[in-house]
Amino acid sequence: MKNPANQTDRRRQHLIFIGLFLLLQIIFIWRSFYGFNTADEMYFIGCSERIFRGEKILIDEWNPTQQLCSFLLHPIYCLIRTALGSTEGIVMASRFVYLVYSGVLTLFFYLRFQRRGYAAFGPALLFAIFAPFSICAMSYNSIEFGILPVLLAVLSARMEHSVPEYILCGVLMAVVVLANPFALLMYGSYGLICLGATLRGRKRGVEPEGALQFRNFLWMTLGAGIVLVLFLAFIFQRGTLPEMLANVPHIVGDSEHQEGYLYKTWRYFHLCFKNYKWMFVGLALVYGATWLDKKRYAHSLIYMLLASVCVIPYLIYYGFIFEHITVNYQMLPLAFWCLEAYLVTEKKDRRLFCWWFVPAVLFTMIVQYATNTGIVTLSVAYGMCSCVGLIFVADWVQEEKQRWQHAQQETGNSAAGTERAAGRWKAAAFCVAGVLLVQFAGTFFLRMTYDWGDERTWSLTAQMKRGPLKGVHTTPEMADWYGKVLDELDMLELTKEDEIMVVGVAPWIYLYTDAGCGNYSTWQVHEKSTQLYDYYALHPDKFPDVVYMAHWAEEFLSCELANQFLEKDYRVVYAGTGTVLMSPERADAWEAGRVTGS
């Protein structure tokens, strides 16, 4: 029979969470109207726009990062793009899609841990307020760091799953792989573990649990295979196998990501230690003392206080002082503080540790293999560890509370002993509250004020009135520049028959014009890269007749990369906010049109 008091408390818990969740969503909707990210966010949307216009994954687009998961986003993007009728306001629409995605996952994590009481607030709200890179966009980062924790949450549950659930897990794994192809390493390792557990179980006459049975891994593979079939069908609906085989070597040969795996492995540890040096030195001593102490559970408060002393300075520094993508750096220290909570908890949740925390830590190494941004992205990846780690902290606090309650109930216990137990419980609660207050306050502050590629929120006082960023607030200087660039693009009278290449980090220009993307990506052109030559050799139809130099006009015209245009007698036809280079035919037609129009 259900306890009415427990039902009332659980109902109160749900109502409080729903209230906090709705309040955060209202705040985040307001926050979405601020910040002009000229690079990454525009590139993410630009990939989807290229596919919407009929271009081909793994053929027309050569940047390896976003294009695979653009396949996943394509149906949603098509709905939004069709509803809008153009790219006017597409950035705001994309941000709202991210808020829905983040909100759904937040509710999922709360439901996953709801039976643990108010401890469920920790993982759910931490996920809600943290946006990777402070970019509220659907990207490979938001997908892999959102979907992988969902998969780990399902597999770590203390329950047997049905065949359809394992198939769904395979679908989720395929989604992670599309966001980060190196995740295949994790999936392959998991398959070997399942195979080993199944063979060992047969030898001993004992069947392993469902998530370790090889047949269930095969059901997951079926789910992943369904996504693979859909992905290949989408690719070959637009392109051919010879086209893909000709282009893929150039995609995986991307010069931005070419570093050896041994070097990247070494660099993983080097970057972590370099950016959190004294924290790791201190925590190493705390971990060592904890391991050697046979009475570690009795001394747990001391170790947690010491661990807090190690991490709080970094949380404060990266939350309120440091000025470079600080919202990412916030997540790593919390993960290692939570690890200490796990070590000093007597009744550990080993299942969550082995099925969620450890795989998430290993995935941070996989992230290092895939990225060229180092600690900036590694710290984001540790957010997956921090979310579940808060459950370890809640378990430790619960144990401390039980010790205090036991001391109160024990007959014959001295008043001094009860007072010491109460003091220890209060110190434990103060320790946890202090760290979490700094962590959540810093993360929320950065979510509200920090913009990748723009000034702090309080400086964003001008609203852009048209184009893909319609409705977004930025600085008056950026809004003025943005408006002038749009005026110049209007002046060029670009059509669908044109191909334009943008020099400089301005992927949003591709979103504004009707012209095709005369480049291997909407991402920036690198002056020393040979990819552009290779791209035009395979895609002569993409050779641009218009080059718009948003930045670095003089540098571009003097660099070797410009020779392929200058040798074809391309000429500068306009120099203003941007500099415009056109083919002879396009330049003659444009100049004639201007004369006629005047």
TrEMBL record:
Swiss-Prot/TrEMBL keywords: Membrane, Transmembrane, Transmembrane helix
Transmembrane segments: 15-34, 90-111, 118-143, 163-196, 217-236, 301-321, 352-370, 376-397, 427-446
Protein name from the UniProt record: Glycosyltransferase RgtA/B/C/D-like domain-containing protein
Presence of keyword Protein biosynthesis: no
Annotated organism of origin: Roseburia difficilis
